[in-house]
Amino acid sequence: MIKYISRTAPLLAALLLLLNACDPKGGSDTPNFDRKAMLQDYVTNLIRPAYGDLRAKAQTLHDAAQAFESAPSLSALQTLQNAWQTTAIAWQYANAFNFGPAGEEGLRKSLVEEIGTFPANSAKINAAMAAGTWNLNDFNRDARGLPAIEYLIFPAAGDDAAVLAAFNASPARGQYLTALTQDLRARVAAVHDAWLGNYATDFVENAGTDAGSSTSQLYNEMVRSFEALKNFKLGLPMGRRPGQTMPEPQLVEAPYSGASLVLLGHHFNAIEGIWRGKNAAGVEGIGFRAYLENVEGGPALIQSTEAQLAAARAALEAVPEAPVLSEQIAQSPAAVEALYIEIQKLTRYLKSDMSSLLGIAITYSSGDGD
Predict the structure, then answer these.
(1) pLDDT-based confidence at 13, cuts 50/70/90?
(2) What is the biggest distance separating any 2 CA atoms in the chain, rounded to whole angstroms?
(3) At 251, which CATH number?
(4) What average pLDDT does the segment 233-252 reach?
């Protein structure tokens, strides 16, 4: 028996090597593609610029909040509202890089959860202001971040004067606002600074395709961000999530500012940009599209993906700018329904087919049902 094994061992090893070479899940074997160069390009062309822009916008937002708290006026409020929207737009281009410095650590959740949990919980926010005390490191993530700031500074009925009166009547309201903007600024700055340090070098060097690799983290968070757009920015207010029996338009991402559709459009741009390796300024680099060009079956998937991206973009552009997204879902949902269908079709190409061709496992539980 021992002699039999020893004679066949070389043949068995050769067979295993052949099987591994033919395994479609072994998509990491792409000798004509430099994944380190791709990862470096993501760092310099997309990730650092996205977090740098978000940090600058978050600083401007905090400055505007401080100015408004010290001297409330309608003009200061409008400056603050504009600063919120530009920060919320910048966030769309950073939220898919929700790993590494932006990932979970100890009791801290990911940056997406810490500053982007929506809808804001108005009861918690109002209770904190009434008590005059708050803890921005607790589990009440729906009472801080961009959605909570939006709740405070935009009027539910389109009346800025009512917002101004609320701040004038309650000093705690202004204090809570500046505490929120300071918390947002600090969290974003910490992530941005980490990407300027040693983490970026480690990220580029970890160029495999296994579950802990940078390529896997980048790919998984891109897909997770895409599914957040599909499932929560569209599916949730449309009543398409498990357990829902009817539309709930009030659950859009930005119900008070009316910027839901604007943010949705930028989020879509960001996802397509990551796939292409193109940043918010339109500068093209090495992305997953270039990676697919070097994988068997990749060019065909590129063609299918680009066709569906174009169909989804056309559907997005067909959604009227007015009325606001929540009103369209409630009153005239046809264009939003068409958009949801085209976004849903993208799932196959970005998630199922791409994962298979690149040999990258989906490492999170989406509960999507695909």
Answers:
(1) very low
(2) 90
(3) 1.20.1420.20
(4) 97
Reading phi first (left if > 0) and then psi (alpha if -120 to 50, else beta), residue 365 is in beta
Token readout for 6 is 């020893």
What gap in Å lies between CA 11 and CA 308, rounded to an integer?
Answer: 45
Neighbour-count burial for 225-254, b at 16+ CB within 10 Å, e otherwise: bbbbbbbebbbbbbbeeeeeeebbbebbbb
pLDDT at 122 over 60: yes
Q: Rounded to whole angstroms, how far apart are CA atoms 252 and 340?
A: 14
Is residue 96 one of the residues assigned to a domain? yes
Across residues 51-75, what is the average pLDDT?
98
Which runs of E-coded beta strand occur in the chain? none
User: What is the spatial distance between Cα 128 and Cα 149, in angstroms, rounded to a whole number?
Assistant: 13
The structural domain count of the chain equals: 1
The confidence score (pLDDT) of residue 158 equals: 75
The average confidence (pLDDT) of the chain is 91
Computed on alpha carbons and rounded to an integer, the radius of gyration of the chain in Å comes to 23
Rounded to whole angstroms, what are the CA distances from 115 to 87, 148, 182, 218?
12, 9, 12, 20
Model pLDDT, residue 367: 57
Whether 10 is covered by a domain: the verdict is no
Buried residues in 123-143 as b, exposed as e (16+ CB within 10 A): ebbeebbeeeebebeeebbbb
Give the pTM: 0.91
For 156, counting Cβ atoms within 10 Å of its Cβ (0-12 exposed, 13-18 middle, 19+ buried), the class is exposed
Instruction: Decide: 14 and 346 in contact? Cβ < 8 Å.
Output: no
